[in-house]
Amino acid sequence: MGTTVTVTGMILKAAPLKEYDRRVELLTLERGRISAFAKGARKAGSALSACTIPFTFGKFVLYEGRSSYTIQSAEIQKYFGDIAQDYDMTCYASYFAEMAQYFTRENMEALDEMILLYTTFLALQSGKLPFSLIRIIYEMRLLMIEGQGLELFECLHCHNTDTRSVYFVAGGLVCDKCAAKEKELADSYPFILQKDVLYSFQYILTAPVEKLYSFLVTDEVQKEMERFMRAYKGRYLTHQFKSEAFLA
Ligand SMILES: [Zn+2]
Questions:
Q1: Which of 31, 88, 129, 138 gives a 20 to 30 Å CA spacing to 121?
Q2: Distance separating alpha carbons of residues 37 and 21, to the nearest angstrom
Q3: Residue 216 lies in a domain
Q4: How close is the Cα of 217 to the center of ligand 1, in Å?
């Protein structure tokens, strides 16, 4: 016999199943990321219909079977309806959700991922920042949460704060003196960050999550941040995300 469990979470993804059902990926506070079935969710008038579409946040009552969860009922707390109305916003939201899905597992704590994703969706909706900047902030913060963050405050070896040379092989900043002493670093080129770019990244790594999406940068700074993120992800995140192809 299975039991019933109530979880708080967000629908990352939904796919049609059989004639009337849906299979969803849920990021939850209590159980990490789980798959669940929503029986009859595609039937007209189904109570599950509106609460099992992507980016819906709320409380879900699940029947826990031996090997799967089935949604029995749900209570929506936040419905990101605007996102679905806007094509570009949907593309970005899908990409952010896919990344969160990639990094989370069942029975793994996912509180930080969920708060970040929720806050990021609010930022998308608010329209105050360009989506491309939201993306940089989200990616950098998520990589930090997942233990792939870079040291961007001081030289990894001598703690000298007067350096802007990032060596991806080392995991962050290394000053010229220290880099010269290590053959692997002496033989490679650092990514030298402009001051404003470095400050922006430092802010992303340390700001309280609710303040993350509260700054703008010049086009020049943003281009440099994008160039940096490509190099950074090229080394630390080689997974290809399907939804990335749809980003503007
Ligand atoms: Zn040093």
A1: 31
A2: 7
A3: yes
A4: 29
